[in-house]
Amino acid sequence: EERVKALFKELVEFYKKNTYLFPKEDGSICKLNDLRESNQKILSGERSIAGSFRLFNASSLWKLKYAQYELVEKKNKAQALIVFGQSTAYGYLSVKNASLTYGCLINNQFQLMDNITIEMAQALIAGWNDEAFDIAEAMIASIDHGKVKNYEKQKSIQLIIGNGLSVVPASWFMLELYCKLKKRDFNRKNADFPSSMVPYDTVLKNWNTEDMIEVERYIHLLSTAHLDQAKEQVTDDDYFEFGGTGRYLFPYEILTWLKLRELKGLKNPTEFSHPLMNTPIAKMFLDIKEPLPKPKELPFAKELLEKLKEKCPNVEIPEWLDG
User: With contact defined as beta carbons under 8 Å apart, do 321 and 298 qualify?
Assistant: First the structure.
């Protein structure tokens, strides 16, 4: 409980101190200016169109922090959910269209596995199940495909997550859960799998239990593992799966498990004893009972997709994205 309180205090202080990152009531825009500048460089040809995927991903991660800012600093849950939906949409567009441009763009579209799994988790939390499954399938295709030699540039080209990343066991936990729900699998000889899956292996063995006492016990195990990884990277040798303010108190791997249990038709607890699951952030996501509306407008998204589609006809522009 003390650890959760300390992290929440750190988040509150971060958002009080870094309000310059987010739009203001007077209409001034901060971080979005940088993203728009990158967008213009891509549209003008100054940067490769392949940079659109990085731009979508950066927008998703920024919007995730922005959603928590609206909730924690401004106490505006309704606006926080709108921004969270925008974050989720950017993340989906990044993964979906990067997976559709393989063979069209020579650029390497690789991203860290935990950046992709958080986007899958967000889609599940938002109730966008088809989009979440698209992301999971893109990860499976990436692992199955393995590395391909690009003889033109003499380097290995990797799809989305390459062969995965061994230092992110929670991400593998989420992918394994999807595989169990959908009776899918991936090429385990290709996978850069963690040497240890503790405590996720314990939950995976009995992920669909109907025993609520066991579910609560597993939530404690997962919450403890989350807090152990909710640290800031200090050196290049450090890698914490839940490092960074956007992830500290966002138990997206636990919410993924609970959402996939719901899709299996299983019951979940309605109250939680672990403090990680009782923060305003966790409660906001737990309270989502109906799918969030998909945003009709996302800054610079449609124009980038239209330009990308000129080069790569397989690119998809969702019907819900009007502008």
Answer: yes
